[in-house]
Amino acid sequence: MNKTTKTYVLAYLFFSILGYLLYFHIRGYGFTYLDDASLIIDTSKSIVRDPYSIIRLFTQNHLSALQPQIFYRPIFAASFMINSIFSTDNLTGYYFTNIALHVAASCLVYSLLIKLKYNNHTSLLLTTLYVVHPMLTQAVAWLPGRSDTLVAVFSIASFIAFIKFIDTVKRRYYFTHLLSLALALFSKENSLCLVIICFLYRRLIMKRRLFSSEERSLAIGWLIILTLWFMLRNTALTNPLKITVYEMVRFLAANLIVIVQYIGRIFFPFNLSVWPTIQDSRWIPGAWAMIILIILLSISKGKRLNYCLFGAAWFILFLLPALVRPSIGVSAVFSNTRAYLSMAGLLIILAETDMVKYANIKKWPHAVLISLVLIFYSLIAYEHSCDFRNGSAFWTNARRTAPHSWIDPARVKE
């Protein structure tokens, strides 16, 4: 085993242990009664009635009760069907799968930072922050949150394969990129933005001309994958939501403040809500966080503007699909899980600051400060995860932190 491989293995082992230690307690959690109970019961019944129903997920909508139909996520539904085969009596297997996906996504974030030429210390520090960050807790402790961990795993894997293909022009990376892209698309819709991210990487980071031979071959592959996805999606959604370009622009304009709110929750993850609405989420912490980040970048001598712009594009683009939807007004809900994949973009920006770049755990003042921050975030994440232990805890948090929620917690069973 060479030194590079050993470094990767030790890092992956560290993230795995840390992730399971932080979230091991959720194995005994029950239903929150927000989507999870109906989703798991329906998928379990389907696989019992017909073992081949897992294949038909690609041509039949598993959320047909939701009208008009918005979501097409067969890989997401298939993961619950597979869980139901091995976890017939309790939800332990479901929760362990959520933890495993979070660990896998974290390992891929580390690989992404290394692939973007950040040193091991910076990549290790930022990925550790990703593992324990309270904003990402809902994606682990709430069973339907796995749609965001799934799309993160496949999207980041696809992007890493894309970089390797551009660097080496080897076929195995080309097909790995396309296969991972397809799996990401069948997991959640925001992975459509991955194609734009790949274009931006070539222009902003590599500064290569457009329409090269590699790009033409990629464009053909993207076209095939996207066409297949659109065809299967149109087949599965018999009553799809119809939305005009004007409405999309109107929804986006009304929901833009959510980006600032997400940034605020990432930098100041206190009093997190399981059901955050626009009116109940403050924008001031986000504004302060943006000011602090701008100051940190402005005083950083070694920053690379193209990497900062790429990180910002990653953060915003993967959030945009959540903003362009018919959910506006004070009661519009924007779950913390939607920032799961986007947060990797903020890590890229942070990696360009001298504060992070020159942090050295071998120096005791740095080690103490870093340890305190990570322990503090871990404690918040642990406490927030308890809000998902059952329906009573979930809706008690929703009633306290989001009084403008449109669902009445009193109607939910424990």
| H/E series | HHHHHHHHHHHHHHHHHHHH
Largest sheet geometry: none
| Helical percentage | 55-70%
Strand residue percentage: under 5%
* Radius of gyration over C-alpha positions, nearest whole angstrom: 21 Å
The averaged pLDDT comes out at 89
Structural class: mainly alpha
- Note poorly predicted spans: 408-414
Q: Distance N terminus to C terminus?
A: 51 Å
Count the DSSP helices.
20
Let me know the number of strands.
0
Oligomer: single chain
Overall 3D shape: globular
Topology:
Blueprint lengths: L2 H21 L12 H14 L3 H4 L17 H13 L5 H24 L4 H13 L4 H5 L4 H23 L2 H15 L8 H12 L7 H24 L8 H11 L1 H11 L16 H15 L6 H13 L2 H4 L19 H9 L2 H4 L6 H22 L5 H11 L13
Characterise this structure.
By secondary structure, the protein is mostly helical. The protein is 65% helix and 0% strand. Helix 1 (3-23) runs antiparallel to helix 5, helix 2 (36-49) packs across helix 4 and helix 6 (120-132) runs antiparallel to helix 17. It is globular, with a radius of gyration of 21 Å. The N and C termini lie far apart (51 Å). The model is unreliable at 408-414 (pLDDT under 50).
Describe this protein with a few key phrases.
mainly alpha, 20 helices, 414 residues, 0% strand, disordered C terminus
Structure summarized in a few sentences:
The protein has 414 residues and is an all-alpha fold. It contains 20 helices and no strands. 65% of the residues lie in helices and 0% in strands.
